[in-house]
Each structure stands twice: as structure tokens, then as C-alpha cells.
Design goal:
- This protein is of the alpha/beta class and about 220 residues long.
- The protein has a single domain (about 10-220), classed as Rossmann fold.
- Helices cover about 50% and strands about 15% of the residues.
- The chain contains nine helices and eight strands.
- It has a five-stranded parallel beta sheet, with helices on both faces. The protein has a three-stranded antiparallel beta sheet with strand order 3-4-5, covered by helices on one side.
- A hairpin with a 2-residue loop joins strand 4 and strand 5 (about 85).
- The protein is globular, with a radius of gyration of 17 Å.
- It starts with 8 loop residues before the first strand and ends with a helix.
- Bound molecules: 2'-deoxycytidine-5'-monophosphate (DC).
- 2'-deoxycytidine-5'-monophosphate (DC) binds next to helix 2, helix 4 and helix 8.
Amino acid sequence: MNRPLPTPIAIDGPAASGKSTLGMELAERFGYAFLDTGLMYRAVTLAAVRAGIPAEDKAARRFVRTLDMRVEATTTTRIFLGNEDVTGRLRDPEVEANVSLYSALPSIRDAMVRKQRDIAAEGFAVLAGRDIGTVVLPDAPLKFYLEASEESRAERRSRQASGEWGQAQRDADARKDIALRDSIDSTRKVAPLRPAADAIIIDTTRLTLDQVLDLALEKVACASD
Ligand code: DC
């Protein structure tokens, strides 16, 4: 007899490893909600920077209690602060520069993890982040951990970016940014980036999106055979 589709599905991995792309593809195929938890940390960061809250746990604890943040997870993720849809602002420079600092604060992580668990409990869901398989949903029946070399992740990031600088400058900037983010995300005290013991590890360095998707689909099929 066939088992039901696995839910929730956890996808973790470092910056630009392809988590969101895979998550959205799976969500679309199976009609799951897709929650990009990185966007939640980005939205809190935007709100905190706007309100002039220092990246310090005590101030952040008071701040998150009053934070009016709404998360809409369909096949993509949209985030609202009050009535404002801030999804398009979440890659702004002031967010990029500060998100690793605010997302390392326990008070912010506690509040976000609670919201993430609530959303995962609402129905079929795929969540992407850094600590989904280890902390947020340790009992998830299917966990992926995507890896890719720093060089290939920087290349992907810089191809997505455009701007007044040339390609060589964009490549160098992307590599520096990715190396810094990896180091902060994987060495922080609370919920550092690491694969769960039961995660399926996929190295995407030399794989196309279709190949990654095929591998993931095989695993979903195995989990529901
Ligand atoms: O995936 P991203 O680049 O949008 O994530 C933005 C930041 O949020 C990144 O520095 C790590 C942090 N983050 C986290 O700490 N935990 C998560 N579950 C998701 C993201």
C-alpha cells in the first residue's frame, strides 16, 4: 500500500546552494506550501533596522514581542510587516549587511522557530533554511541538505545580480559575501548550519537544476512507496 506523501519536507544548506529553487519546485509539483525561512529572518532584520533596534538580544526580545509580521506561504513565500508587503525589499543592502547579526540572536530565533512550526503544522509544507532538519522540525520524515562549492555558489549569486559594476567585480563581491555568511552561519552558538544526522546530502556543484530535482523526486517517491 502506498504511504501518503512525506510532510513536512526540510531543506537546509548554505547560501546560494539552491534550497529555494528546489523548495519551490517541490511545492509546485505536490501542491505544498513553501516557506523560505531566510525571508523571515530578513523581514525581522528590515523591521529592526527601520526601528533602530540594536543587534543585541535584550532589545530584540522586547522588539519581537510587538512585531506585526505576517507570513504567507503558498507555492512561494511572501512577508508582510503590518499591511506592507516587504517581500521585494528583503534583498536590499541594509538587510544583506545585517541579517546574519540579527538572525544569530536567540530571542529572534525563538520567535521565528515558533512561527515556522505553526506553519508546518497547518498542512503539507516544505521549509528551507539553515536549521530546519536539526532544530525546527527534527522529526521531519524527509530532509535534504544541499551543498555546493563556494566558487559555484558565488557564481550563481553573481549571475543573479546585476548592477553598475563589471562581472569580475560582481564575482569577487559575491565570493567574499558568501564566505563571510558561511562563516557566521556555521560558527554561531545557536542553531549553527549543519546537516541533520538523517539528512540526504546532495552536492549540487556539478548538477543542473533538473538533475537536483530528479534526485529529490526519487527520494520523495521512496518515502511514499
Ligand atoms: O537563506 P538566506 O540567505 O535568505 O538567509 C538569510 C540569513 O538568515 C542567513 O544569514 C542565515 C539566516 N537564516 C537562519 O539563520 N536560519 C534559517 N532557518 C534561515 C536563514
